[in-house]
Amino acid sequence: MRIAILSDIHGNLHALDRCLADLAARGGADVIVAAGDLCLEGPKPKGVLKRLRAAGAVSLRGNTDRMIGDADLTLLAPEDARAVRWARKKIGREWTIWLAQLPLSLRFGEGANGLLVCHANPKNDDQHVWPDADDALLERLFGDVEQRTVAFGHLHLPYVRGWRGRTLVNVASAGLPKDGDPRAHYAILSARADGWEIQSRRVDFAVKKVARQLKRSGIPDLARRLETLRRHRYPKLGSPGSRIP
Fold first, then answer.
1. In the chain, what are the domains?
2. Is 128 helix (H, G, I), strand (E, B) or coil?
């Protein structure tokens, strides 16, 4: 089995299309998984959802999908409430309900040799797992997981880490990179007798094109979203060349 996992598309249809074209050029996959945070924050939220459906992708729910799907706007921070209100209007009621009903995780294969795919980690949808996460955190989040291979996103920074006989795969972001590399990222995992072979894919997309789309979209808090897109780096990582945690 060959599984392509794309996470954190964040409404960037152009980057998604570039990733899907790259996947097709490499022979495609038996399953395409969209691992959450599908449409909030980008200029083409409904376009992303429709493209994933057309591609036959199976999807799970990320924290921003949960916000769009069922959050009480009065309980959100003002900037989040503005974003969710805009996204709900753009995608419509049917897609809003669909996001709310997505599963929290997906499993492929059997037993320890299987693959678990989730958004942020196996326990919740909003806690980042940085590549230098300590043993206590990993034990709490992954210690009782049956599968030896776990793939996830939420943190827009790709890495593969071995831990206590498990392989933790962060597939990062197919729409809003934040690790200092302006390219989108996704991963292809192929089942082998002794586990899963992992292929990391970086894909160019036209940042200027997406910036123009943002400007035309009417999305709230435009200046902040443009800055995030163009910077493509978490502020906590410091300047380019500094150590990534």
1. 2-237 (3.60.21.10)
2. coil
Residues 6+ apart with CB under 8 A from 134: none
Strand ranges, E, within the chain? 2-6, 31-34, 58-59, 105-108, 115-118, 149-152, 159-163, 166-170, 184-192, 195-203
Locate 142 and state its tokens.
């992954």
**Residue 144 region, left (φ>0) first, then alpha (ψ -120 to 50), else beta?**
alpha
How far apart (Å, rounded) are the C-alpha atoms in residues 127 and 119? 9
As a whole number of angstroms, the longest Cα–Cα distance in the chain is: 50
Distance of alpha carbon 5 from alpha carbon 44, whole angstroms: 20
CA distance 20 to 105: 22
Which pair of tokens denotes residue 179?
Answer: 């690790």
Q: What is the pLDDT of residue 240?
A: 53
Q: Give the mean model confidence (pLDDT) for residues 22-28.
A: 98
CB atoms inside a 10 Å sphere around CB 107: 13
- Which residues, in sequence order, are bridge partners of residue 203? 184
The amino acid sitting at 162 is G
Task: Tell me the torsion sign for CA atoms 57, 59, 64, 67.
Answer: positive
Which percentage of the chain shows pLDDT scores above 70?
Answer: 97
CA atoms within 13 A on the CB side of 69: 18
Among 11, 6, 2, which Cα is nearest to 228's? Answer: 11
